Amino acid sequence: MNACVTGRVDAPEMNLDRREHVRRLHRQAPVIDFHNDSLRATMDGDVRYNPHPNAPPRPRRLWQKAETGQWDFPRALEGGLTGQVTNILVPRPRRGPFLPVALKAYRQGIADLEAAPHMAMAATSAADVERAHREGKVALIFAIEGAEAIEGDLDLLHIFHQLGVRAVGLTWMYRNELAEGNWEDTGAGLTAFGRQAVCEMNALGILVDVAHATEKTFYDTLDASVAPVICSHTSCRALVKHFDDHAPSRYFSDEQIKALSAQGGVMGIFFSAGRELEKRDDSALDLARFFAHAASLVGARHLGFGSDYDGGFPPNDLIEVSGLPNLSSALIDVGFSDEEILGILGGNWLRVWRAVAGHESVQPAGKAATEGTNT
Amino acid sequence: MKAQRREHVMRLHREVPVIDCHNDSLFAPLFGDARFNMLRHRPPMPRRLWEKRPSGHWDFPRALEAGQTGQVTNLLVPWNKDGTHTKAVLKAYRQLQIDVEAAPQMALIATTAGDIECAHREGKIALILAIEGAEGISGDLDLLPIFHQLGVRTIGLTWMYRNPVAEGNWEDTGAGLTAFGRDFVRAMNELRMLVDVAHATEKTFWDTLETSSAPVICSHTSCRAMVKDFHSHAPSRYLTDGQLKAVAAQGGVVGIFFSANRELDSDEADVTDLARFIAHAAGVCGADHVGFGSDLDGGFPPHGLEDIRGLPNLTSALIDLGFSDEELRGILGSNWLRVFRAVWGA
What we know:
Low-confidence stretches of chain A: 1-11, 360-375
Structural class of chain B: alpha/beta
Helix content of chain A: 25-40%
Number of strands of chain A: 9
CATH class of chain A: Alpha Beta
Order of helices and strands of chain A: HEHHEHEHEHEHEHEHEHHEHHH
Mean pLDDT of chain B: 94
Strand content of chain B: 5-15%
Largest interface: A-B, 26 and 24 residues
Radius of gyration of chain A: 19 Å
Distance between the termini of chain B: 37 Å
Distance between the termini of chain A: 44 Å
Oligomer: heterodimer
CATH superfamily of chain A: Metal-dependent hydrolases
Number of helices of chain B: 13
Low-confidence stretches of chain B: none
CATH topology of chain A: TIM Barrel
C-alpha cells in the first residue's frame, strides 16, 4: 500500500482502490486547512517559490491557476479542499502602522472572492463551510496572524470580527502588545492587555490561536481563555532533529499537546518534515508520522491540517495543495481509521469552531457590515 | 414661538425626514465635550449619544425632540500626521456602533435613502457614516471598498490639511486634486459614494467638480458673499456665489453650517441671521439645492440654536423669510434625500 507515496507531485501512483478510498473520504466531509499565507502572493507575488529566479515575482490572483506558489482556488478544488483559513499578514516587526496593511491584505482576499463567485466564497461560520462543501466551492475564512493588526485597541478587534475575521493568532514571530512570539523567545508571556484581548475574543466567538507563541504565552493563554484554544500551525517538538533558525517553542512539546487537547483545543500540523527530520527527499509519509506521534499522545480528535502553504516548506509530493490526497493516503498508511481521518481532514476543526463560536446564528453587529461581504 | 407657528413647524418636520449633513458629535463618546464643556472646572467626561445630557449640542434624545431624522455623522480624522488616521476612523465607527446597539429603539445606521425613510416612519434617528478627510483611508484605494462595506457613504476629500488626495482650506496654497485624488474621486463614483468638497480649497473644488461623474455635495459651508470676518479660516472655507451655482448645476446640494456670529462679526447673531445665509444661498442656486450642514458639536451655533433642540426655531425663521412649505420641505431634508438616492442608487 505504500506505492502511493512517490515523492513526485504530478504522478501520485495511488492504486485505484486507494484513490477511490481517499476520494470518498474527501467527499464525505469538508476538508479544512487552518493556515496559509497565500494572500501574500496577491500583494508581493511568490517571493520564495518563484521557479523563474530571473524574473521578478509578480502578484497573482487566487482565482487563477498559477505555475508559481502552492495554493489558489483551482488547485485547492483539485486537492479536494473546502475550508481554508487564510492569513491577513502583518508586516515585519515594529514597522507600523499595521492596520492599513492588514486591511489591504483582507481586501485582496475579498476582491478575489468577488471575481470568482462560482469557485469560492467567504465563510464566517462552520455552517458556511458545510454549504461550500455542498456547492463544491472553496470557503475562505479570514484570520489574523499577529495581533499587531489591532494596534492595541479592542475596538478594532470588533471591526475585524465584523469584516469576517474568525481567528486571531496572538503573535507572529515578534513580541507585540499582547504577547511574545517564538522568534525572540525571552521567556515572556501574555501582557495584561493580552489577557483582556483573549477575554474579548472569547466573548466575540473568535478562535484564539497560539501558533508562534512562546511556551509562557502558550500556558498563559490556556489559563486566560474560557474557550478551547487552537494552534493553527505547529508540529511535534519530540520528533524534530533540527530547529533551523526557529526557537524550539515553535514546535509543541508533548506536554503542550496534552494541555491544548485537555482544554478541547485542536492542533494544526504544518506541512513540513524535511527540515525537521533533516531529510532531503521527504514525503507525505514522513509528515504523517508527525500526526501519528501527536495521536499517540492525545488521540486523533485533536489534530488537523495547518499547511502553511505559500509560507512553508511542504514535502515533495505535497508541494502544492492539489497534492492533498497524498497526505490522506499516507494517513491511511500509518494506520488511522476512516473515522479518525475524517476528524483530521476537517471534522475536528469544525467541532472546535462550533464550540468557540457558540451561537452560530448571531450575525455581526453592523447591519451594513454583512451587506457587502458575500458578493 | 406661538402655538400655531409651532404646529406649522412640527408638521413640516413630520412631513419629510429632516436631515442634517454634518456633525462632529462622535467627539462626545471619544473625548467628551472638550470645547463645549459647561462645567469648566471639571475635565470633559465622555458622554454616550443615547444619553440626554446638558453638555454638547447633539444626542439621540435631543435630536428626536427636535423632530430630526437623518444625521450624517463624521468619523473624526485626527489632527496629527503620524499615519494613524485609519485606526482613529475605525475606532470612531465602533463608538457610534456601541451607542446605536445600546439604543436600537432610538437610532439605526442607514446606508440607503430607503433606510432614512424607514427611520422616519419609525420615529428613529438614521445615522449616515461620513469621513471628513481622505487621510482616513491611508492613501490606499484598496481600503475604500472596505469602508463602503462597513457602511460609509460619503467622504470629504480633505479636512483642514493637505493629504494624498487634495489640499484643505486651512493651508490653502492654491493646490487642488493630486493625480491620486482624481483616481480617488473616480473610485468613489464607481462605488457610488458621495463626494464632499467641504473644507476644499477653490482649486480642489473645481478639480473635483470636473473629475466627478456624479453630483458633488458640500456638506457644511456658508456663503462667502455675506461673510464679514473670516476669523482664522481661509476665505475658501466659504463658497462664492459662482461655486454655489456650480454645485447646483451638477445636481449637488450645499449644506449651510449653523454659525453666524463669527461670520457677521457679532456676538448677537440669532437664528434669523443664520436663516439669511440660507436665503442667500437659495437665492443664488435655488432652494432645491440647499440643506442643513449644522456642524453641531464642532461649530458655533447662534442664539436660539444652542443645541439641536433649537432646530424648530430655525425652521420658523425660514418661514419668516418667506420660504414656501414646498421649499422648506426641500431644505429640511428632501434635497439631501434626492441627492443621496441619486448617488447611492437606493
